[in-house]
Amino acid sequence: MPSDEVPIGDAVRIVGAARRVTVLTGAGISTDSGIADFRGPQGLWTRDPAAERRSDLTHYLADPEIRAAAWRARLALFEAGHQPNAGHRALVELEQQGRLQALVTQNIDGLHQAAGSAAALVHEVHGSVASVACVGCGRHAPMDEALARVRAGDADPACPTCGGIQKSTTVLFGESLDPDVLDAALMAAVDTDVLLTVGTSLAVGPVNQMVPQAARAGVPVVILNAEPTELDELADVVVHAAIADALPALLGVRGS
Ligand SMILES: [Zn+2]
């Protein structure tokens, strides 16, 4: 990306003037931590179409093979030990300045909290892989508990209470988003001085509605993404750059 196409100075000025910053993050902030995005050229679903079926509730409930593959993928994700990067750390610095209004994320990887972001500010609209839930009785438990059984040879660990199917507490296709989390996200898009989106193509609704909501309310919108997004025309400034390099610069922090 040629640097003369990157109006980062305008973005620095707009975000720097804001007392309260609402941030929406997507897969692009975690790719520098080694976590594949879904639909990009190197994306998980592009390279492995079976992975997309694992993310569909109907297939997941119907097919024990798909569940076994999903548990293997969860185990691999945890054993890879992905660490937060400079982009995640830059947002922690923004919070330490007292300027982070809300951190809405489409990511399920928990890396914002791992970097040090306060859990109370993080709204995980697509859920989290940190825990599991039983689709039968609703029992919640830490992911570690289920993965210990997978490691011990249980391909599809059933709920210890009712014997029902367990899944991670991520939102699969066919499931609804938590309305309270979505409401908090949409509210944070308008109750702020600027909306900054980071590493999301803004193609997935309803969370992408944060952008038109902010624009309609007169809240400046800054988009930082490696590629053009579906909503670039609604932004005051669009920066196309690598996230882990550009986000600390954009926020005027070190990211270390
Ligand atoms: Zn159960």
How would you portray this structure in words?
The chain has 256 residues and is α/β, with parallel strands linked by helices. It is 37% helix and 17% strand. The chain has helices spanning 8-16, 44-47, 49-54, 57-62, 64-80, 86-96, 111-115, 143-151, 179-190, 210-216, 243-251, and strands at residues 21-25, 100-105, 122-124, 127-134, 140-142, 166-170, 194-198, 221-225, 237-240. The strands form two sheets. The protein has a six-stranded parallel sheet with strand order 3-2-1-7-8-9, sandwiched between helices. The protein has a three-stranded antiparallel sheet with strand order 5-4-6. The chain starts with 7 loop residues before the first helix and ends in a 5-residue tail after the last helix. Bound molecules: zinc ion. Zinc ion (ZN) is lined by residues 134, 136-137, 139, 159, 161-162, 164. Residues 134, 136-137, 139, 159, 161-162, 164 line the site of zinc ion.
In summary, what is this structure?
The protein is α/β, with parallel strands linked by helices and 256 residues long. The chain contains eleven helices and nine strands. Helix 6 packs parallel to helix 11.
Q: Name the beta content range.
A: 15-25%
Low-confidence residue ranges: none
Q: Which sequence of strands runs across the widest sheet?
A: 3-2-1-7-8-9
Number of strands: 9
SSE-based structural type = alpha/beta
- What number is the mean pLDDT? 92
Number of alpha- plus pi-helical segments: 11
Could you state the order of secondary-structure elements as H and E? HEHHHHHEHEEEHEHEHEEH
- The shape, in one word, is elongated
List of distinct ligands in this structure:
zinc ion
* Ends distance: 24 Å
Q: What's the Cα radius of gyration?
A: 19 Å
The major beta sheet can be summarized as: 6 strands, parallel
Fraction of residues in helix: 25-40%
